Amino acid sequence: MCGIVGLHLRGERLADRTGDLLARMLAQVADRGPDSAGIGLYGDDELTYPGWSTVSLLSRASPERIASDLALPVTCPDPVVRAVADVRTISADLPVGDLVAAVRASLDGLVIGSGEHLAVLKGIGSPVDLVQSFALPSRHGYQAVGHTRMATESAVTLAHGHPFSVRPEMCLVHNGSFSNHDTVRRELRARGVQCETDNDSEVAARFLGRCLDEGNDLEKSLRLLIERFEGFFTLLVTTETQFAVVRDRVSAKPAVLAETDDWVALASEYRALAVLPGLQDAHVYEPGPEEVHLWTRQ
User: Which one, 100, 160, 266, 288, has least CB within 10 Å?
Assistant: First the structure.
């Protein structure tokens, strides 16, 4: 059992409150996942740097050490490095793929997110405490996802925590379990796609990343996932402009959607939606089996 929450803003009116609203939502599903928690936040210029690429790295090295050790082209300005709990966000004036390659070549640690708009933070322990260590209530943005984890099939480590972000700007959070993830992992490996953990959710993220890399849009990629994966699941998948929800054919894992003129939100339980402004006027409903619900930011 895990808890997932997500918030997609349709305008800018609540952008300064995004972190606080996500923190309140996460607190309501903390008991669903006491082992660890993580977030993906889009558009917070305290974690990313406008116009530059950003990499989120699991590392406890000092920002000064990272800036010193990171090998960048001589024409590149000095990077901007920020420390948030066990994560370092590294921003530089480079294409995102080049920055990811430089970080992996120069630094110890695991890349857990990348993009111009996305920062990913993860931690082990009480989700309520982690929200504070992330300074989440003071953060802002236009879209956010969160996850509280109760480990059932793999270890409790930072690397095993959600969200999984395996390509620029993409995040996946998952409640449930896939029964055929080992088979799909072997199929991906045969196609040159490597997983970094034994977590079943990472396999789903890698599968979606492969589908997107092959030119499928997000809706088609999620439909391909429904066809290939077996088990019980609710997935929330985001990109820099899209927010998508899908459940398995049985829909045993809880999920509630709500929409207003200002926002779209998903939560594992209704109580996590109750903290949002305007819920009394929202369209609240349960996503059906194998339905792909997708919103695009204009």
Answer: 288
pTM of the predicted protein model:
0.95
**Between residues 100 and 34, the one the model is more confident about:** 100
- Would you say 34 and 127 are in contact if contact means Cβ atoms under 8 Å apart? yes
Residue type, 281: D
* pLDDT value, residue 234: 95
- Name, in order, each residue with C-beta under 8 angstroms of 187's C-beta and a sequence gap of 6 or more: none
Supply the residues annotated as catalytic.
2
Measuring CA to CA, which residue among 70, 51, 76 is closest to residue 109? 70
| CATH number for region 50-116 | 3.30.70
Query: Taking Cα atoms as reference points, which of 38, 68, 28 lies closest to residue 160?
Result: 38
Where are the chain's structural domains?
Answer: 3-48+127-296, 50-116
Question: How many CB atoms neighbour CB 45 within 10 A?
Answer: 14
- Please state whether 215 falls in left (phi above 0), alpha (psi between -120 and 50) or beta: left
Q: Does pLDDT of 165 surpass 80? A: yes
Distance CA 102, CA 263 (A): 37
Quick one: which H or E segment has residue 23? helix 18-28
